Amino acid sequence: MSTAENSRPALFDRIFKPEHIILENGHTIDRPKSRMPLILTVLVIVVWISVVATGFNFHTIIDRRNQLTVILSQIFQPKWSYLDKVWKPLIETIKMSLMGTVIGCLLGLPMAIFASTNINKNKPVVVILRLILAVLRSVPTLIYAYMFALIFSLGAFAGTIAIVIFTLGIVAKMLYESIETIDMKPYEAMVSFGANTLQAFWAACMPQILPTYLDDCLYCFELNVRASSILGYVGAGGLGVLIRERTGLRDYTNLGTVLLTLFVVVLLIDWLSDWLRSKLS
Fold first, then answer.
1. pLDDT-based confidence at 20, cuts 50/70/90?
2. By three-state DSSP, how is residue 73 classified?
3. Cα four-point dihedral sign 145, 151, 157, 163
4. Integer Cα distance of 125 and 115 in angstroms
5. Does the UniProt entry include the keyword Membrane (predicted)?
């Protein structure tokens, strides 16, 4: 690119000409006009289009505010006697999350290795693998659960497979980005001594990415506990079954028991993950 092209003013400055200011010493400077009015105008237009497209209505919120307070008041008055029916689905939810996370993270490691441009020099393979990972990440876990519930029948197995697929996409994506930032000199040295790709990666690269890999696994476990709690809406087991039943029956008191239990579990898992991360770092 030439110097003239580099010095060409931005499109905004070509449309909205800068203001010429003459200083006391006779020199002239150009003061660009503020972009804030343009940004605010575009933002207002986008918000207005979004309101029209979604049918958002403040009047509906105001008119129905009493229903919100009624429902919330029932949710915040949980019945502790209902806990006996919550424990089994809760444990099932944690099992689904744990199993799905472990399997997904294990599968994500080799996928990330072969999707890294500094490890795999075969560009078509890298492009295909990254395209597959992009597709896996783009589909919500709930959709996967619905698909696998139709294939493998209702139950926690379908939810576990859905979590495996989603975790695979997330972990592999974050991991291959980390792999591409590591020091490749130890890897190249081992390859020059005759080690194959996997042997060289395990000995030279794995120690560099292990803390990041474990951190990514913990992060996905946190996500999966939250996600698996609603997979029961499509028949994939866990707490979602209870949430769907209590919501359908408008039993908001017992729904509050389920949600409070889930909140405590997620809070404990977040605390445990933060503690493990501090040890890893």
1. low
2. helix
3. negative
4. 8
5. yes
pLDDT value of residue 8: 57
> d(Cα 112, Cα 119) in Å, to the nearest integer?
10
User: Which run of H or E residues covers position 122?
Assistant: none
Q: Is 202 helix (H, G, I), strand (E, B) or coil?
A: helix
- How far, in Å, CA of 119 to CA of 137, rounded? 22
> Which residues are 19's β-sheet partners?
31
CB distance 105 to 217 below 8 Å:
yes
Could you give all domains of the chain from N- to C-terminal order, each with its CATH number? 11-56 (no CATH), 73-280 (1.10.3720.10)
3-state secondary structure of 22: strand
Reported as a single tens digit per residue, the pLDDT across 182-227 is 888 888 888 888 888 788 888 888 888 888 888 888 888 888 888 8
CA distance 130 to 141: 19
pLDDT at 202: 87
Answer whether 164's CB lies under 8 Å from 227's CB. Answer: no
> What sign has the CA pseudo-torsion 103, 104, 107, 112?
negative
d(CA 203, CA 215): 20
Which runs of consecutive H residues, i.e. helices, occur in 115-205? 123-138, 141-152, 156-179, 185-192, 197-200
pLDDT of residue 1: 46
Residue 103: pLDDT over 90 = yes
Counting DSSP H helices and E strands in the chain, the numbers are: 14, 2
